[in-house]
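Hi everyone, sorry if this is the wrong subforum. Our group has a chain we'd like a structural model of before ordering constructs, and none of us has done structure prediction before. Sequence below.
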Amino acid sequence: MQRKAAVFGSTGLIGSNLVQLLDDNKNYSEVFAYLRNSEPSNPFNKVKFVELNKDFTIGKGVDDVYICLGTTMKKAGSKEAFKAVDMDLVVDVASKAYDAGVKRLLVVSSIGANPNSSNFYLQTKGEMEEKVKSFNFELVAVVRPSMLLGEREEFRLAESIGIWFFRIFKFIFVGPFRRYRGIEALDVAKAMIQLALTSNGIIIVESEVLKQIADVYQ
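Answer:
Right subforum, don't worry. Here is the predicted structure as tokens:
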């Protein structure tokens, strides 16, 4: 039986890859891509664009919800604004998904996420994880990628420097540092779909294992 999916953060690096993969995936009959901006041209076959506003809803019949929402401190402008997107909005989506009868929730977090961290970014991600894990879905999959590799529409200087550093000095990310290796956004998207199709329970998956899962995606 084919599934229906909803993707939040569908224009981001991981989300845009997810939309493309889900559109091509034979296990899905319909994909709802939620956007905070104006609707783009639609080159897809199974994708419908939905406005992500304060009154958004998740329709009955959606099986899997993929949450790839996130911003930066620079773009948000304050800790409160950052938290409103990276935690509050994510939890709101999870709550509405649960109320709509969604079976599986897959959420992008970050390597090092910890609610007790002294780092505000990692603390926020950790708090978000704890909240989404409290919902009784058949599957709650939290993916924790390290540095994302891939072409963004917007230029981020710090990330560009980090990606350059990783590609040049990739050889140093071995042993205990292996978990911090960069990962292609496409591989994260592949792994998330593979997890949705094969897993149950509450799971947390970091970059190294995400790559292994992505390699078996078909």
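For your construct planning: The first helix runs from residue 13 to 24. Strands lie at 3-8, 28-35, 47-51, 64-67, 104-108, 139-144, 148-149, 183-184, 201-206.
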